[in-house]
Amino acid sequence: ELTGYDRSMAYKFHDDDHGEVISEITKPGLEPYLGLHYPATDIPQAARFLFMKNKVRMICDCHAKPVKVYQDEKLGLDLTLCGSTLRAPHSCHLKYMENMGSIASLVMAVVINEGEDEDDNSMVEQQQQQQQQQQQQPKRKRLWGLVVCHNTTPRFVPFPLRYACEFLMQVFAIHVSKEFELENQIREKNILRTQTLLCDMLMRNAPLGIVTQSPNIMDLVKCDGAALLYNNKFWRLGLTPTEAQMHDIVLWLTECHMDSTGLSTDSLYDAGFPGA
């Protein structure tokens, strides 16, 4: 509604650099792109670098004829247009837009800060030590994704509106960064909880304590069931195979994985267990 484009979508980059449309709003009659994944090559690293420099990119009409730019011979350095809004897009990108049925586009970069995953207690304890480092070393930036607007007809967005869109992207990026911080804090607390449980179990005298005392092994590992084989006797918790089935699994592990300190699998069949 703010920009007036026919389609607006949020495009997130994954760890392997491929992109996914995670949110979308369109005018009636347009083909939806929500949930689609695109290869990393669709937006090459050179283009991503430019988005880090110029966070709002507008193409008014992909059919418009590009205008040549001539450099004054007196200039000692080569002229660069990487920060220019009027820079003509690459011909491959124009063809890409045509194939999508798009004539005009407005693309806004979502750039977030990295390295903010300390929890509140750690930040309080290390605040004085890290203050000078934070002042000397700027936080690393990362291109989290793009907000892309498409239009089926030529469209020009004036500078004040583009500036407002850039401000909205900054606010959105802050929210994304905060979500990452919250996830990291939760993960750190879970790691601390796991370490505490593990230390408690290691301090027990009897090996059976991991299944007979509280907290037990199921509090340490997220699972539906657990079993301990000790002195040729099974101790079971939750949902487990029968003792006969567990004997077969133990025999298979002894024969096929004797040199391994452990085995983790999502499928006993895929792991080669004959009784699966």
TrEMBL record:
SUPFAM superfamilies with a match to the protein in the record: GAF domain-like (SSF55781)
EC class name: transferase
Region of interest (Disordered), residue spans: 118-137
UniProt entry tagged with the keyword Transport: no
Annotated catalysed reactions: ATP + protein L-histidine = ADP + protein N-phospho-L-histidine
Pfam families associated with the record: GAF, PHY
GO MF entry, a single one: protein histidine kinase activity
One GO cellular component, as annotated: nucleus
Domain spans labelled Phytochrome chromophore attachment site: 1-170
An example Gene Ontology biological process: detection of visible light
Keywords: Chromophore, Phosphoprotein, Photoreceptor protein, Receptor, Sensory transduction, Transcription, Transcription regulation
E.C. numbers: 2.7.13.3
Bias (Low complexity) ranges: 126-137
Gene3D superfamilies in UniProt: 3.30.450.270, 3.30.450.40
Family statement: Belongs to the phytochrome family.
Name of the molecule in the record: histidine kinase
Organism this protein belongs to: Desmos goezeanus
Upper lineage: Eukaryota, Viridiplantae, Streptophyta, Embryophyta, Tracheophyta
